[in-house]
Hints:
By secondary structure, this protein is an alpha/beta fold. The chain folds into three domains: about 35-170 and about 375-405 and about 445-505, HUPs (Rossmann fold); about 185-345, Valyl/Leucyl/Isoleucyl-tRNA synthetase, editing domain (Isoleucyl-tRNA Synthetase, domain 2, Alpha-Beta Complex); about 550-680, Isoleucyl-tRNA Synthetase, Domain 1 (Orthogonal Bundle).
Amino acid sequence: MSDLPKAYNPKETEEKIYKLWEESGFFNPDNLPHQDGKPFTILMPPPNANAPLHVGHALGMTIEDILIRYHRMKGRKALWLPGTDHAGFETQVVFEKKLEKEGRSRFKMTREEFYKECWDFVQANKHTTEQGIRRLGASCDWSRNTFTLDPKVVEIVYETFEQMHKDGLVYRGERIANWCPKHQTGLSDLEVKDEERTEKYYYLKYGPFVISTSRPETKFGDKYVVMHPDDTRYSEYKNGQKIELEWINGPITAIVIKDNAVDMTFGTGVMTITPSHDATDFDIAERHGLEKEQVIDLRGKLLPIAGEFAGVKIIEAREKIIEKLAGKGLVDHIDENYKHSVRMCYKCSTLIEPQVMPQWYVKMSSEGGSASGGDGLRDMAVKAIRDKEVKIVPERFEKVFLHWMENIRDWPISRQIWWGIPIPEKYYSQDDPTRGQETFDTWFSSGQWPYATLLAQGKKDFETYFPTDVLETGWDILFFWVARMIMFSQYKFDKAPFHTVYLHGLVRDKDRQKMSKSKGNVVDPLAVIDTYGTDALRFALVFSTAAGNDIPLSEDKIRGMKHFANKLWNIARYVLQKTEGLEYKESPGHPLLPELIKSVTTDLDRYAFHEAAQKLYDFTWYEFADKFIEETKDKSDPETLFALRSTLCTILKLLHPFMPFVTEEIWGQLPSWPGKKLLIIETWPN
Length: 686
């Protein structure tokens, strides 16, 4: 017998074991002994290739690896395809911060210079990310590793865009966009965040009316005064009526507009509109064919229409404008404590400045369907959920999904950034100034991940592994990513890209607070692995939280799971010593094993990872170590010894998906018997 050391040392074991797995070739389903097994496929949500892995990645990787290892042992032809995401805007933000620290700016670089430097930056981080994935024990097929900027993936993205363009599902439209003045790009509705603020709210005299606003800096171009057609307070005013009045920079002619969008109960029930800088105002202007005059430039400064305030940043101009209006007697009163939501860029918290500009849009609703007569993308995704073609775990998120789909607007997919997949120039008019300057929203390419990754490997892979079985990801990107993958796959192949969506929660600190660098409560998964080992981190992450629920993670919990790994090690040392020289013979083992096997198998089939983990922990520590081993310490009869070893073997198999390193190391120390293989491809107990 080869003696196990007294204590389990993950640092000495994990790299060696992972190398053993990689060299075995069993991460690749083409090399598995059960080639007639039914495929089981998971595509790894590609981590952003711009920063090291965080603890949320560790949770996702753990859950996915549990599923892959479990189904591989069940005889399935298990493929877990890894990859990384170029992450367009997010990577550009990270890289621009790096440039800022170096005293540089992309606006002083050519597009080509910026792209090359960003590419090198991403490739270095991509390598770091992939090494991190290995350290987490991920048994993914590295021979199929995919990057969202791989040429074959880019080709598929272009093919999809061209097909959608022909079908009338993408169009170039000049509409109001969420504009980030700092990063100089438009953003989708999902990429802005709302923050409640208490600010001043101004009531201003506009001819015979009193209007109200929190943004007087937009009012230079306001020449339309709008009221509800049923508001009896303003019945004397007719649609299209002109009114002469004094305004910020002198006399203007205002035009009365009647529109149902006005809330009669808010403020005075009358408002002026700035169609170029507000979504509601833009819609009103569209309905009535009104002019849209730009007041604020793309840098957040006032344009010449503002007269003496031209070139001033809007926040700096606000109080000066109010002073001027007050000097003219045009300030009715000011509410000092007005609570409202402001919209900000989700990456830099710069206030969003809506701007009217041409963008590429994906048509979402079925109004008119597509040019080929089909449904809109929204309807395709809704049908997949309602028809149970896609099951979401936990089920409560299906209602959330369907509710969001009801209010979805057309999706702007062009970004005014340099990093990403360029939108082909051939789709622009020759005189369009943005021609050759825009890239696809990263979610447009990653939304095609399920079929693009498999098609990039070849037709055979696509036919074998698509649709995939499980998409595992955080609930926070249900709309960013999951919904869009369903839309694209339904559109292109008339089938959902996966059968099940498993949504994990967000990892929080021990007090259930959100992790952030400013709070100093961020858990670095690789640092944790250095201290406690990968198995301890993995088991701690899945041990106590159900699908969709946020996960409190403390060092104490991870330390406790390190003790559990040591307990398993000590059990193995005892059993190996006790059974040294014992011949091979099958044994039913512990009398409660059949019940445990059935229960853990059922839990894994219904994605109750935490329940399976708890049962394995309790059985191993209490039933096996504290009771069975203690009760049989003085026994040396063959049946007892066979039962001890058989129980250990079964426990190692059941725990392997959760704690792969320590179980494989112990398994390798067990004596050989006919048919014994690496634990990674041993048969799941039944």
